[in-house]
Design brief:
- The chain has 376 residues and is of the alpha/beta class.
- The chain is 30% helix and 26% strand.
- The chain has two domains: 202 residues, FAD/NAD(P)-binding domain (3-Layer(bba) Sandwich); 147 residues, D-Amino Acid Oxidase, subunit A, domain 2 (D-Amino Acid Oxidase, Chain A, domain 2).
- The chain has eleven helices and 17 strands.
- The strands form two sheets. Strands 3, 4, 5, 10, 11, 12, 13, 14 and 15 form a nine-stranded mixed β-sheet that branches. Strands 1, 2, 6, 7, 8, 9, 16 and 17 form an eight-stranded mixed β-sheet that branches.
Length: 376
């Protein structure tokens, strides 16, 4: 007799695991199918910043979604530790968005005024104040926006905690299991064909990040989810060099992790799945990082790595049901905000599959069939 699940989740990354966790808590019979290993792609490459107000600079559905998700992390951290014993290393020591010149300072000051509408604690700090906070910053830094409520987590541990908690609530996880196609019946998706056989279900969720477009194309739908390669490196000083996350608009960030490492990233190369780390990419990051924090050049080298982030044509993720095939859903295209948005994505998709969000206006901005309005 064939085994039928309520939900098949394709992809064992941060969002697939978060969705599995939320659905399993509802008592649904869930299975995660991962082509390789859990958290093996973007979820293991991210720095884990929860930078809702540093990265997103204008109001809109994505910004509001990010704020909601950011507020979930404190409770989520305790909840996941209680269920799994995994510490997701939630650190809430704030972030400094750096203005490297007086010209950039004018723009960042405007952002401070805007962002204080949602967090009155956000403030501008001048060149003297910012070095009082972070003495290692270069003398050339003109000031910055201090976001005391921006933090970071350890993405691999967060993904593992979501997955382990889902297991605690009865979910199944099958690694090294690739979904090859869907099983259809009367306008509905009722299962998947994998490299290890068929699996029947009531609903399917595609949460495969930058690879989502390839899989969903089988349904006759083209969505502009494309890969953006990012290279990173880390150093590991004997004593702390910075306390807060340092974020620059020049595509460089420095994130001090609990194990002593400072994560430094990330380059951006569009439309490639090549995960090779390049001397040119790392050299660019080293130059930018040393410009911000000169002491970086003398710190012990730790490691390099690379990840593939999923970007979309309009910069918004896809969260919703397929416009033609019932029972088929997607949650992909979170780009640089996958870790930040994982709690709210899990909750929204679980509620959507449970029939609780049929009229949610926020989700209209992330619907799957909006792709016809945007061309990449």
């Amino acid at each position: 007799m064939k085994k039928i699940f309520n939900t098949v989740i394709i992809g064992g990354g941060i969002n697939g695991s978060s969705i599995a966790y939320q659905l399993s808590k509802m008592g649904r019979k869930v299975i995660i199918l991962e082509k390789h290993l859990l958290a093996c792609e973007a979820s293991s490459a991210a720095a884990g910043m929860l930078a809702a107000q540093a990265e997103i600079e204008q109001d809109g559905p994505l910004f509001q979604l990010a704020l909601k998700s950011q507020r979930m992390f404190s409770t989520l951290s305790s909840e996941l530790f209680e269920y799994t014993g995994i510490d997701i290393e939630y650190v809430n020591k704030g972030m400094l968005k750096i203005a490297e010149t007086e010209e950039i300072a004018l723009e960042v000051k405007k952002q401070v005024t805007f962002q204080r509408n949602w967090d009155p604690a956000i403030q501008w700090v001048d060149s003297n104040e910012i070095r009082d906070m972070e003495p290692a910053l270069a003398p050339s830094v003109a000031g910055g926006m201090y976001l005391p409520n921006d933090g970071h987590v350890q993405p691999i541990k967060l993904t593992q905690a979501f997955a382990k908690a889902a297991l605690q609530f009865g979910a199944e996880i099958r690694e090294n299991t690739e979904v090859l196609s869907f099983i259809y019946e009367q306008g509905k998706v009722i299962g998947v064909n994998t490299n290890k056989g068929m699996i029947h279900c009531e609903q399917v969720v595609i949460a495969t990040g930058a690879w989502a477009a390839k899989l969903i194309k089988e349904t006759g739908l083209d969505i502009p989810v494309y890969p953006v390669k990012g290279e990173c490196f880390s150093v590991k000083p004997e004593a702390p060099v910075i306390n807060t996350t340092i974020f620059s608009d020049k595509r460089c960030y420095l994130v001090p992790k609990q194990n002593g490492e400072i994560y430094i990233g990330a380059t951006m190369a569009e439309n490639t799945f090549d995960k090779n780390v390049t001397p040119g990419g790392i050299a660019t990051l080293i130059e930018r990082a040393c410009h911000l924090v000169p002491q970086i050049k003398d710190l012990p080298w730790e490691r390099v790595w690379c990840g593939i982030r999923p970007q979309t044509g309009d910069g918004n993720p896809y969260i919703g049901e397929h416009p033609e095939w019932k029972g088929l859903f997607i949650a992909a295209g979170h780009f640089r905000n996958g870790i930040l948005l994982s709690p709210i994505t899990g909750k929204l998709v679980a509620d959507l599959l449970d029939g609780r969000l049929a009229d949610d206006t926020l989700l209209t901005s992330f619907r799957i069939d909006r792709h016809n309005e945007f061309v990449h």
